[in-house]
Every structure is written in structure tokens, then in C-alpha cells.
User: Fold this.
Amino acid sequence: LRYATTTGMSAEEVHKLGLDRVAELSARADAIFKVQGMTKGTVAERMRALGKDPRFLYPNTDAGKEKLIAELNAQMQAMQARLPEAFGRLPKAKVEIRRVPADIEDGATGGYYQIPALDGSRPGAYYINLRDTAENPSWTLPTLTYHEASPGHHHQIALAQEATGIPRLRRLPAYSVYTEGWGLYAEQLADEMGVYENDPWGRLGYLQSYMFRAARLVADTGLHHYRWTREQGIAYYNETLGTPEPSNITEIERYWADSTGRRNTGFILPDEKLVEGFCRCLPSESFARPSVEGVGNRIELARGMPAQICALREVLPQQAVGILI
Assistant:
């Protein structure tokens, strides 16, 4: 657990952190549902009902899957066109959206990112699992794109790979707690940029995605510290998230088979700690304007680092922390 989180947090603390975050995010989702006239049932039950709404489903056909990929590309291009609003530098490496290969999609997660080749011979890739389009209603897709591609993993990892003057270790995604913290920050950044201003369903997708990350803290420590059974883990996801049960089974079985915690406990670092901690580790001249751009540039300049560096800012001068990173 110490290796995965780069902190001294106990399993009990990680478990409680996940539960607290799920409760807070559920309350935010409940408020949106009520405004939209969906008042009956738990948040998970309402999420599940929304996930079955035909308005948001793609046909589970080749044509339907092609349409889904095309709309994801359009979302990504729209966000990339706006990235200069938030960042002074953009990665040179491109990112492509691809389907998870059919021969592995039954056991694969819903989406994941593949880093570009260090020599530039291969772009980054965001893979989405289209084994059944019913698992991917349209309101859930934007935030996943922002997390995995831009301004998420691709933006941060590709820029780190292209950096000069730092050790190779810090050019690679060696610290899950940092890269996943960045992914959460990217999801919030997209929200702050107004992408859901007139899209309450998309905002619910954002909140469900964030709940999913928080629930991973609960499920991982539940399985490996509190000795939950496989069935208990699946039931927790079904009752908490409202995501399709086949997806929940895939996720819980992945965690069940991996006792290292590296897949899930990297989500301990909330986006506000990235902003408050990593930014303070860098000199103010790291960015030009005191705006969203400034925050993004300061975090991006930090590259990957352990979460404990954040805590050091409270006991060491800023200059000393700057030397460490």
C-alpha cells in the first residue's frame, strides 16, 4: 500500500477516504437528478435507469460503434482546440481513439490509455471497450475522454516524455498516484472550463466517473484488507455506482486478482491536492498568467512525483521542496 500510494496511509484510512468521497459525490448527483425530475430510488438506481434510457444509447452494431468512435473524436478535437486556454505548452505527440481489440474485450476494462513510444514512432492511444454499446451511454463518455486523452493522461504523460533535462524515471508514468491524480484533475478542469454548462447529463457522467474512482479505494481495501468476497465487491459496485453489472464484474475480478493495490489506491490524491501541493513546489515564474493556465503549467512542470512531496511543503521551505522535485 505504501508503494502504491507513496504515502503512509493505512488500509483503514484509504477505505474511509473512499467511503467519504462516494457519499459526497452521491449527494451532488442526487441534487442534479432532483432538478431533472428524477427523484425516486437511490442514486445508483437512478444512474442505472439513466444508463438504459434509449436517448443515450448507441446501436450495438458496427455502424453504431463507428458513430460512437466518431463522436468521441469530435469531443476530443473540441477539447484540444481549447487547451491553449488552460496550458502554455501542448504535447507534440498525437493521440488516437481506438476500440479495444475484439479478442480481449470481454475481460478488458472500459477504457485505458497507451503511452506514445519514446522515440516518437507511435502516437498515444485511448482505447474504449465496445463489447456492448449499452455499457457506454453517451452521457458517460465525455469525462472518460478527458481523463484518458486530453487534458488527461495523454497531455501529462506525453509532455513528460518530451521533457529535457530531467531523469528518464520522471519522464515515465512511474507514480500511479501522480498520473491518476492528474486524470482526476483533468476531469475537474474540463468541468471548470464549462463543458457541462448546458449538459446536466454529462455532468452526471462526470460525477459517476469520479464516484467510480472513489469506489475503487473502497473495493480494493475491502477485498484485500477486510477480506470481502468477490460477490461482496460486485454487490458494492452494483449498489453504489449504477454501472452495468458486466462492467462491475470485470472490475472486481481485476482487483481480486491483484493484491498490490497499484490499480486502485493511486486514486487517493484528489485534484485539490495537486493544485495546492504540487503548484506550491514550483516557483511563481513557472507560468505567465495567474489563471487556469497558470495552475496547469505549474502542475505539468512538476512531472511525476510521490504524493509525500505534497506533505513536505508544510514542513520545508518552498526552495527546499523545489530541489527535491
In short: The chain has 15 helices and three strands. The first strand starts at residue 95 and ends at 99. The beta strands are 95-99, 111-114, 124-128. Confidence is low (pLDDT under 50) at residues 270-275, 278-302, 311-325.
